[in-house]
Design brief:
- The chain is mostly helical and 137 residues long.
- Helices cover 62% and strands 0% of the residues.
- It contains four helices and no strands.
- Helix 3 packs across helix 4.
- It is elongated, with a radius of gyration of 32 Å.
- The termini are far apart.
Length: 137
């Protein structure tokens, strides 16, 4: 009874799958009773084999600038990962994942701040000047 509650092992699952595939192959290979064996369909020539190299696409999916930026980010991530693997994890500080995320976010945050911070500061200053002077902006 205890054996029913145990999950099958990976080997048992694989053996079961192989057995079902083998049985399906035998059933498909056997012609039905009273029928003539059908002719085998011609092999398809347009099947893409995984070992076949595919040509360069006519138009790349990303621009060279985006590809270069991605390579640079991945290189920085790789360097950071190597640095974090060499350094011991601080007792009360961030773990390696948090440090990786923080380092990855820095360039994105800088880009966003460069694009939006001047406008935000200008609006806040205008509001404060309006509040102090009593004029609406």
């Amino acid at each position: 009874m205890a054996e029913l509650n145990q999950e099958p092992s990976m080997e048992e699952i694989l053996a079961s799958i192989k057995r079902v595939i083998a049985e399906d192959g035998r059933v498909a290979a056997r012609p039905a009773r009273g029928s003539r064996p059908a002719e085998a369909p011609p092999p398809e020539d347009d099947v893409l084999e995984l070992s076949d190299p595919i040509g360069e696409p006519a138009m790349p999916l990303v621009s060279e600038d985006a590809a270069a930026a991605s390579r640079q980010s991945l290189a920085a991530l790789s360097a950071l990962r190597e640095r974090n693997e060499a350094a011991p994890m601080p007792a009360g500080g961030d773990g390696p994942l948090e440090a990786l995320v923080r380092e990855m976010l820095k360039p994105m945050l800088k880009e966003w701040l460069d694009a939006h911070l001047p406008e935000i500061v200008e609006q806040l200053v205008a509001r404060e000047v309006a509040r102090i002077t009593g004029k609406s902006f």
